[in-house]
Design brief:
Blueprint: E1 2-4, H1 13-26, E2 30-31, E3 39-44, E4 62-66, H2 67-77, H3 80-84, H4 100-103, H5 111-127, E5 149-152, H6 158-171, H7 175-187, H8 193-208, E6 213-216, H9 223-228, H10 238-249, E7 253-256
Parallel strand pairs: 1-2, 1-3, 3-4, 5-6, 6-7
Length: about 260
Amino acid sequence: MIHLASGTSQLNPLERFGLAVMVEASGLLVVEAPSPSVVTLDISDRPGTTKTALSPESGDGEIRVFREALAELGAVAGAVKEQRSTEQDRHGRVPSAVNPMVEAGVHQAPRINLAGRALREAVVAQASTRLVRVMAPWPRGRRWAAAFTHDLDVVSGWPLFTTLRLAELAGKGEVGLALQVAGAALKSVVADPVSRGVREILGTERELGIVSTWFILAGEPSLGSISRGDVTYSLGSGRAQRILDSVVAGGHEIGLHG
């Protein structure tokens, strides 16, 4: 349990968002009214550090957080730099290099989760005899969850798509991998490997009780779009419709593949 002191109302919108993200990631139950039996969280206006949101000046029953660190958390969680960027890759998307965590080389660290855990551990350390209550992050007391998604990148034109992929691998000097792809393709010349693969995935998910999201391409394919790996099939084709019907019949979600 934690009480947010009145100083948190002086935060700007980005800092408030960062605070909300950190508190939610901590799993701590927030109480509205101040109480001597609950740890209080307040704000430090002193220059902080982006490595940790918590001030080392935390005292008995009170924890302070740096405004600077809250703004950083809010910017990361809200993808602020990406939204303001005008840079684009060849697909018209914002390059991953724009992300500040990628720039700093720390993109593999779960920044927000670590901040939430640090807050939770600080509250426990400062609580003494005060109440500490943490909510389970997922229903039925589950500690973690996983989202399963699939991109349906190709349906009926897989031989052409495979040929383009082979050319790409050969151009990069990946001869061994290109030979593996070619061998697998030759074994499936008279088959329908895409539909078979979809059936196998749906069957496995049915057995395990997994509900997933299938991202489907929408648009009219052309030689140019196929060569770019963008729109490679038509939703109106018989094979695409059969795949969609199977996905929906299995209780899965359909999403738009950008």
